[in-house]
Amino acid sequence: MNFKDNKAIYLQIADRIGDQILSGSLTPDGKVPSVRELAAEIEVNANTVARTYDHLQHNGIIYTKRGLGYFVSPDARDQIVARRRNQLMQGEMDYFLGQLKAVGITPDELQRLYQDYLNK
Amino acid sequence: MFRFNQISFSYGKKSPELFHDFSMELNAGNVYGLLGKNGAGKSTLIYLMTGLLAPQAGEVLMDGENVRRRLPKTMSDIFLVPEEFDMPQLTLKKYVSINAPFYPRFSMEDMERYLDIFEMSGMMDVKLHALSMGQKKKVFMAFAFATNTRALIMDEPTNGLDIPSKSQFRKLVTTGMSDDKLMLISTHQVRDISDILDHVVIIDQSHVLLNTGMADVTSRIAFRPLREGDQPIFVLQSPFGPLGAVPARDGEETKVDLEMLFNATLQNPAAINQLFTTSK
Question: Torsions phi, psi of B38, nearest 5?
Fold first, then answer.
């Protein structure tokens, strides 16, 4: 797995698991790979992956069954969407809107672009 | 698992002392990265901890036994992959049948799995000296990991490996590691191994400048473009503006840049020391 430089690895792994939940390749109450399995797959230290799982558990995205491992929370999807929406609004949206303004894209144009995108 | 007790070492009366009153502890369950400049004593440290060199003063203990006694129970639990080595004129199969009995936890199944990770399956009947340097290294490392010794010590393991093998090497480490084992990787190729380390040890002549967990580094130092109000420990000029290692603020967490951490530690050991000794 290739990592970006600007974010702690354990959080980037959490994002990847979030992507898998959103795309449906991990399903509610479905099993998440064990720490060792995932560490070997993505070639990352197992303690880093353990940290990812702590983080996801703390945020209610996965839960643990003693002795059986980790599972996707039933409402994981909603949790992730809410968190990402929050992040987008606080961070990237501001930059994005700034770029739109800089190149002179009007609200009408933006609406049209977004509508076209949704219709694709 | 390992304890260096106040060791002093030089390569002879006229040579300068490489280690003086040097102490350090290394614990099971960790993948250690050992970093240091050329001549800082990384390889010497490795030979001292595997009982190949004897310190003039002090001792290196593994589970309480002096490694210099080279007791069978110690030696059967340590495996060293040196930076350079020769392989005998044998087939891999023969090599394994001669050497595996020294390691009680050797597993042929693991050996096959590791050869497979390195895309070296079906090599058992090939003569070892006919292999290229990189292939020899991969075969030898597959054997090293398959011995399942509790301590696995590697000197520049990714040197001479081609691009795909570096990723395969990381897979070997993350597959072979377990809580009762200790792996120590001495290297200059920090980019190859950054993601698989638990712990980083930076040494300079007779001093441990830094010995800390990667999670600890993440929580204490941010590696990123500089911002107003930062008090950087290390600054790197880049075409996009200055980057730096700065004390992490407001819970920020970035990916550890080992190269920058290394340079920061060598350039400003006092600041690093202070940052890591204050409680968080």
Answer: -55, 135
